[in-house]
Amino acid sequence: MNSYKLLLLPGDGIGPEVMAEVEKMLARLTEMGVARFETERGLVGGAAYDAHGQAISESDMALAMAADAVLFGAVGGPKWDGVPYEVRPEAGLLRLRKDLALFANLRPAICYPALAEASSLKREIVEGLDIMIVRELTGGVYFGEPKQIIDLGNGQKRGIDTQVYDTYEIERIGRVAFELARKRRNKVTSSEKRNVMKSGVLWHETIVALHRRDYADVTLEHQLADSLAMQLVRWPKQFDVIVTDNLFGDMLSDIAAMLTGSLGMLPSASLGEVDKATDKRRALYEPVHGSAPDIAGKGMANPIAMIGSLAMCLRYSFGLGDAADAVDAAISATLAAGLRTADIKSDAREAISTSAMGDAIIARLKA
Ligand code: NAD
User: Fold this and answer.
1) What is the pLDDT of residue 56?
2) Does ligand 1 have an atom closer than 6 angstroms to the CB of 93?
3) What is the pLDDT of residues 30-41, one digit of tens each?
4) 142 a catalytic residue
5) Is 293 a pocket residue for ligand 1 (Cβ < 6 Å)?
6) Which of 104, 223, 273, 301 makes the best surface tag, with the fewest CB within 10 Å?
7) How much of the chain, in percent, has pLDDT values that exceed 70?
8) Is the CB–ligand 1 distance for residue 302 below 6 Å?
9) From CA 236, how far away is CA 130, in angstroms rounded?
């Protein structure tokens, strides 16, 4: 039986509650003989700040570097609103993304038929939706220098962020998108704003050249990011894989999130480069949602985004596609049976708790 080392970073708020369901699922998968999962736990975000004044400690960073994959819950909450900027909870996640060089963020948006009524859009627009947003995660305006606020000395200040992309960054994220599309419906939509941004012109040129050179068998389309936002709400099923930069990806993936009904449903994967020596990729898997302080500690959180993140880990880090399919099918069957946490409940049925949802999914796991 293959053995995999996982670092669990539950974080804050509902993070530990949804991570507990993943631990149960890992135990069940081990019992079923899928693989052996060795887990270690670390602290991140506010929990890490409370313990040692940092958003993640050096020793937990070392564990993350050594793990086959990291499973991350969520960070943040009002308790840490006043902490210094450098050690705010989100800094832990940014550090992980940076040091593990996680440049590709994969966010599937899937609308389970049983949940079509939970979306704010009409059933026919979202039912059966299955798209994948590939967001560049380590470049662009969130990291570009200069990044500062300068005092202009006349009672005015100037805030500066820099949008910057090099060819290699666009190429490697483009490759991830094209490779994924080949395993799906073979279509990539690349998005930028080349009408007003130089980085967008380079993005477009680079994707076009990469496509011509290595991926001519994949259908490639281009959409300006604002127009793509509109199309995502108008007719999302026209898309298969969408590839875009850090800033636009942040926004477009949140729009896609709402198509599926609830933030509590959305998993994500962040992948680094394949290490040529070990043939492994650094990777971190996390739900899209935050720490949900409004419901933390109440047993109300939907664990599906976290469990779905584990399924992505099985698929993309461990090559356990069958096990990932089984987890996804168990989620689907649980929803089809009418079981709902409060966030996805739309009728008079009673909502079930986080742990009851986890148990129901595990009970539907088929060998
Ligand atoms: P949020 O995602 O935590 O919550 C938004 C809304 O969705 C809330 O009403 C919440 O109850 C609900 N929700 C979220 N996840 C849910 C789940 N699994 N089940 C049921 N309902 C769920 O976003 P927010 O309220 O804007 O932010 C709260 C805190 O989380 C902030 O400190 C923010 O900085 C942080 N945050 C962290 C991450 C992360 O760790 N990656 C991401 C986003 C926000």
Assistant:
1) 98
2) yes
3) 999 999 999 999
4) yes
5) yes
6) 273
7) 100
8) yes
9) 9
Q: Where are the domains of the chain?
A: 1-105+277-367, 130-259
The atom of ligand 1 lying closest to the CA of 305 is 18
Catalytic residue among 214, 254, 325, 359: 254
Instruction: Enumerate the β-bridge partners of residue 187.
Output: 219
CATH class of 1-105+277-367: alpha beta
Ligand 1 closest atom vs CA 289: 2
Binned at pLDDT 50, 70 and 90, residue 269 comes out as very high
Of 110, 116, 145, the residue nearest 130 (C-alpha): 110
Residue 98 has pLDDT above 80, yes or no: yes
CATH architecture of 130-259: 3-Layer(aba) Sandwich (3.40)
Nearest CA to ligand 1 atom 10: 292
Task: Using a cut of 0.85, tell me whether the model's pTM lies above it.
Answer: yes
Active site residue 347: no
Q: Do the domains 130-259 and 1-105+277-367 match in fold?
A: yes
H or E element in which residue 99 lies: helix 89-99
Q: Mean of the pLDDT values across residues 51-65? A: 97
pLDDT digits (tens, 9 = 90+) for 176-195: 999 999 989 999 999 999 99
Give the model's confidence band at 291: pLDDT under 50 very low, under 70 low, under 90 confident, else very high. Answer: very high
Ligand 1 atom 11: the closest Cα is on which residue?
Answer: 292
For ligand 1, whether the C-beta of 322 sits within 6 Å is no
**Which amino acid is present at 158?**
R
What is the Å distance from ligand 1's center to 264 Cα? 9
What pLDDT, on the 0 to 100 scale, is given for residue 163? Answer: 98
Task: Verify whether residue 166 is a known catalytic residue.
Answer: no
- Residue-level pLDDT at 348: 73
CB 25 within 8 A of CB 361: yes
